[in-house]
Amino acid sequence: MAALPVYRWRLAPDGYATRRQLRARGLRPGGQDVAAQLERPRRRGPLVAYLYRIDLAKPVRPMTPARWAALARANAARRTCPACRRDAGYVIPASLGMCVPCAYPEQYAA
């Protein structure tokens, strides 16, 4: 297996992009392997960003009505308190595991 080309931070040649940069252009890697990597030097080891070739990228698949509905159900489940079964109106913090009034009933008793 050949080694990946490594470029310094901000010095990658044209024609390469990270996942975020591809997504900003409406593209996705589309199954291609990582083509190169960027390294940013740090004291505890380098930060690495993987690069993909833009010419091999494919367009992002459009959201279908079924995918929109599934996303809405998933978000609703994240907002529903397992203790009181109400929609909290915000994403339930994982650290609490329930809505704030259920986690701290003494403060919300009034």
Question: How would you describe this protein?
Answer:
This protein is elongated. The protein has 3 helices and 6 strands, in the order ββαββββαα. A 4-stranded mixed β-sheet has the order 1-4-5-2. It is 23% helix and 19% strand. It is α+β, with helices and mostly antiparallel strands.
List keywords for this structure.
4-stranded mixed β-sheet, 3 helices, two-stranded antiparallel sheet, alpha+beta
Task: Describe the structure concisely for a colleague.
With 110 residues, the chain is an alpha+beta fold. It has helices at residues 19-24, 65-79, 100-103, and strands spanning 6-8, 16-17, 27-28, 36-40, 47-53, 58-59.
Query: What's the total count of β strands?
Result: 6
* Continuous helix count: 3
How would you sum up the major sheet? 4 strands, mixed
The helix fraction, in percent, is 10-25%
Set out the fold topology.
Elements: E1 6-8, E2 16-17, H1 19-24, E3 27-28, E4 36-40, E5 47-53, E6 58-59, H2 65-79, H3 100-103
